[in-house]
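Appendix C: a fully annotated inverse folding record. The material below is reproduced so that readers can follow the format used throughout the book. The structure is listed first as tokens, followed by the designed sequence.
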């Protein structure tokens, strides 16, 4: 059974293995509440997952260790298992979905694990791992639906209460539910008045849908940039924990996640992966009722692929009003580009790209199109530039 004693035992086992991550004050995330960031993105392996993986492996019998361990993961659990197995002198095999970021695949190999790439998403990797477990006799380390794994993740709840004793609410990313189950279990047993909110990507709301329906649901498909929480079906243990201890689960869009990643980079110099930033997105965009409260956003991981990061930053700039793309229909005569440029410059916009096209089949025979990409301060700035262009007689094509 999952008990508070087990969470404390996990904390004891992990004290010389993991890092007690900092709690950072983040005043710009939401001006209506007092926000703190629990920086598990700065944990060893770059994610909270090492806590549950290491504690689970530490509790295996000698026979279970001798058979070697197998796990399935979207990437972060893989690294936690690989590291824990290596520290305990155990062979490990990790099944990863073939769409997992290259950085996570290579990091898993770097910790000493063998990797099996499986076509599909996390749930397909899970099925392959179970198949290999049955075939080869490996000991399976579940990424979330295991009481020792949940106890390991629950140590974060203990740390938060030590670091901010008067916390009002904790906002936690949710995929399969292991992290929020551990945090909510520990926190609610020690201080039942603290609210615990879960956040899922709107493209992978498996736990939210399951709780709404009152029973575990398996989604037909999932799609989100937050690969760490892209899970079709929650676990049995985690579903019951969430039903009993979690106050509410909300969802955020990929655009909102991108904006949160950008805010963490600019405001706090922190790199978060999509799954890690969903808690911040929920508070930024008012998805959870934390006005006037002391709230901790759990930033669960920082293992984002750099190729994805560049695209996410671009989306985040667009979503937060920091970038704009304007299409203008012009008469093809001297001075038009100069006049457009002067208006943008006078209002403080910064042009970063420009494309001039003549003779479109939909334009006037002496007309042309001008496409401008520019950096802006916020949505109000975008609106002001567009209005100034329109007031000067330029036709903006949406």
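Designed amino acids, in order:
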């Amino acid at each position: 059974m999952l008990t508070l004693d087990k969470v404390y035992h996990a904390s004891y086992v992990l004290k010389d293995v993991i890092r007690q991550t900092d709690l950072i004050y983040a005043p710009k995330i939401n001006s209506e509440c007092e926000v703190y960031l629990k920086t598990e993105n700065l944990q060893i392996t770059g994610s909270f997952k090492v806590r549950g993986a290491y504690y689970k492996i530490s509790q295996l019998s000698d026979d279970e260790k001798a058979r070697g361990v197998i796990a399935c993961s979207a990437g972060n659990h893989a690294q936690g298992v690989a590291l824990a197995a290596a520290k305990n002198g155990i062979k490990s095999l990790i099944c990863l979905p073939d769409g997992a970021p290259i950085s996570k695949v290579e990091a898993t190999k770097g910790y000493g694990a063998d990797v099996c790439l499986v076509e599909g998403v996390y749930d397909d990797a899970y099925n392959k791992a179970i198949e290999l477990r049955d075939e080869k006799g490996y000991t399976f380390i579940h990424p979330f639906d295991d009481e020792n794994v949940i106890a390991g993740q629950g140590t974060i709840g203990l740390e938060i209460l030590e670091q901010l004793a008067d916390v009002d609410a904790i906002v936690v990313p949710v995929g399969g539910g292991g992290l929020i189950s551990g945090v909510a279990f520990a926190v609610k047993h020690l201080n039942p008045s603290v609210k615990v909110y879960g956040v899922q990507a709107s493209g992978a709301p498996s736990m939210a849908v399951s709780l709404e329906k009152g029973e575990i649901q398996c989604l037909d498909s999932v799609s989100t940039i937050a690969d760490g929480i892209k899970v079709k079906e929650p676990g049995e243990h985690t579903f019951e924990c969430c039903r009993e201890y979690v106050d509410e689960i909300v969802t955020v869009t990929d655009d909102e996640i991108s904006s949160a990643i950008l805010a963490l980079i600019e405001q706090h110099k922190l790199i978060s992966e999509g799954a890690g930033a969903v808690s911040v997105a929920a508070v930024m965009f008012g998805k959870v009722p934390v006005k006037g409260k002391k709230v901790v956003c759990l930033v669960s991981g920082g293992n984002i692929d750099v190729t994805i990061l560049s695209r996410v930053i671009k989306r985040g700039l667009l979503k937060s009003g920091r970038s704009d793309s304007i299409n203008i229909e012009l008469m093809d005569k001297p001075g038009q580009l100069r006049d457009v440029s002067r208006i943008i410059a006078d209002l403080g916009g910064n042009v970063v790209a420009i494309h001039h096209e003549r003779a479109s089949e939909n334009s006037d025979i002496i007309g042309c199109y001008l496409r401008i990409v520019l950096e802006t301060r916020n949505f109000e700035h975008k609106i002001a530039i567009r209005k100034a262009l329109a007031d000067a007689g330029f036709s903006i094509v949406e």
